[in-house]
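Deviation from plan, reported transparently: zinc ion complex.
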Amino acid sequence: MTKFRTPAVASIMLMVLAGPAVAQNAPAQYDIALALDPAGSALSVVVEASGLPCQGDVARVYLNRGLTLTETIIDGRPVEPVIDPAGAEPFWIAASRAIDIPCPREKARLSYAGPGQLHRDGRNQVAPELIELSLYGGWYPMTAIDRPFTWRLRTALPEGWTFASVGAASRTEPGRIDVTSDRATDVVLIASPRFTDDSVEIDGRRSRVLISDDAPIEARQVAAGLAGEAADMSAWLERVLGPVEEGRQVRPELVFTRRGGPLSYSRLPLIVTPQASLLAPGDRPLGLNVRHEVAHFWSRSEGAANDWISEGVAEHLALVRTGDREGDDTRRSRLDLYRQQVEAAGRGVSIADTHTDETRAYINRYQRPALLLDAVQASVGRPALETFLRRLFALGSSLTTATFRSLAVETLGEPQATRISACLISMDWPEVCGGIDAPRPVT
Ligand SMILES: [Zn+2]
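Because the crystal trials were delayed, the predicted structure below was used instead.
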């Protein structure tokens, strides 16, 4: 992956990587013992994996090429893995290398070690004052981007370090932490001795904010403001859409990491943003981004063909709340920008076919659905659209374009449902869908 030049590209990557995975088989299970040496900027790892997918009698995994395999044990027997096997396709993380091992009947155990910095922009590192590990560095064995696994991570942090991770974390003995995730998700660990650990409460909803104690005061104020917006967004969505799960409250965790590179990502409940962007945000406003990510606690669909629903609805909700919090002009000007960008992109695959042309992912997953939902809301009113969305989320993550359409017929009535159906398969973006119908200037 290269440096992101435009927010559109960054957002596409977020969508692809943060998007829910498609389960083909039962998820694999990883048990990860991670030894960290922040002072020496190094790490070593032992992973026990069961349920690895195999092709015939081989399982192929990918690991950052900066890491050195020291021992591979398959079903209790030591084996020689094939490093960089002939004919292996390049993996999406350029720094990773393919490793072939015999297909385990039960367990594969891989031991490896290497330098702390696994990506040049610092997004994956073990350093004296920062640990930030996620799949972007290939620090654990990967099989495919959309292949889920559940995991347990055990590690130790130096005394006085504060950490954030996905999954359920407990401190087992002084300094040792144990995190488990029954949900298939990326293994993320972020920790620093410099983090101040605060929480912000709005409307009875809390969010957590981690930021370095040496960040400029202005940056800390922006961070606290964003944590407030995250809490507000979750309180509002719970009112509008109902609880995410019976008895479960959303508690977003905003982590501002002191490293290079523009990459932001979310692995709920974590929303990870470079600290430097607090005072120099890119083209995508931070408040809109935080609201969009919080909306994903609710807005989830499975499979690339249905990604437009989770992304488009999250973007719509983020824009609606941005209007409430920052004024309707802010919301409208964002929609106007999308309208112009969609117009400039011209004719191309429809929303329903986005997965066949990923170059239009940002237009079709974010911009066109947000414009369409805004146009429908302008026709039916906000309460009616909220009823539609509430029923949509009640269907869980099994949403498809077909269920979206049939729910539109049931809750919004025939004329709106017809309009939605037509726009979802339209290659153009006319005014009825929220686009521009004006004649195009001849140049
Ligand atoms: Zn999203």
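Residues 15, 292, 296, 311, 314 surround zinc ion (CB under 6 Å). We consider this an acceptable substitute for the interim report.
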